[in-house]
């Protein structure tokens, strides 16, 4: 569970990949006009707050936070006790 340079590089690269994705908030995924003239759209919106409980995988801390924030959500992360020091270091960075 050590945060050695290769792991840190991989986590940073994963966060960069998420950051490069198009903004999903506000995307219209379906647009129909009903026979009575009413327009119905399916629009992507944030869910609100996402809670995640996961085991000893420190990379999940960075990747889950990046995905939730990219989608406009708040996030509560609860990692396993085995990785508490690594998760704390990632959260403070």
Can you put this structure into words, describing what you see?
This protein has 93 residues and is α+β, with helices and mostly antiparallel strands. It has one domain (5-92). Helices cover 41% and strands 23% of the residues. The chain contains three helices and four strands; from the N terminus they run αβββαβα. The strands form two sheets. A two-stranded antiparallel sheet has the order 1-2. A two-stranded parallel ribbon has the order 3-4. Strand 1 and strand 2 (39-43) form a beta hairpin. Helix 1 (5-20) packs parallel to helix 2 (58-70) and helix 2 runs parallel beside helix 3 (84-92). The chain is elongated. The model has no long low-confidence stretch (mean pLDDT 93).
Main attributes of the structure:
93 residues; 3 helices; 4 strands; two-stranded antiparallel ribbon; two-stranded parallel ribbon; alpha+beta; elongated
Task: Show the helix and strand layout.
Layout: H1 5-20, E1 28-33, E2 39-43, E3 49-53, H2 58-70, E4 74-78, H3 84-92
Please outline what is shown here.
The chain is an alpha+beta fold and 93 residues long. Helix content is 41%, strand content 23%. A hairpin with a 5-residue loop joins strand 1 and strand 2.
Radius of gyration: 18 Å
Helix content: 40-55%
Distance between the termini: 17 Å
Q: Beta-strand percentage? A: 15-25%
Shape, per Cα inertia axes = elongated
What is the number of strand segments? Answer: 4
Low-confidence stretches: none
Largest sheet: 2 strands, antiparallel
What is the number of independent domains? 1
Please trace the helix and strand order, writing H or E for each element. Answer: HEEEHEH
Structural class: alpha+beta
Adjacency order of strands in the biggest sheet? 1-2
Helical run tally: 3
Mean pLDDT: 93
């Amino acid at each position: 569970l050590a945060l050695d340079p290769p792991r840190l590089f991989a986590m940073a690269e994963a966060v960069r990949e998420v950051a490069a994705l198009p903004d999903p908030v506000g995307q219209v995924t379906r647009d129909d006009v009903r026979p009575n003239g009413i327009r119905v759209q399916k629009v992507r919106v944030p869910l609100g707050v996402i809670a995640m409980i996961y085991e000893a995988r420190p990379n999940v801390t960075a990747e889950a936070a990046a995905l939730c924030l990219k989608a406009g959500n708040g996030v509560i992360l609860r990692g396993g006790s085995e990785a508490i020091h690594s998760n704390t270091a990632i959260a403070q960075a």
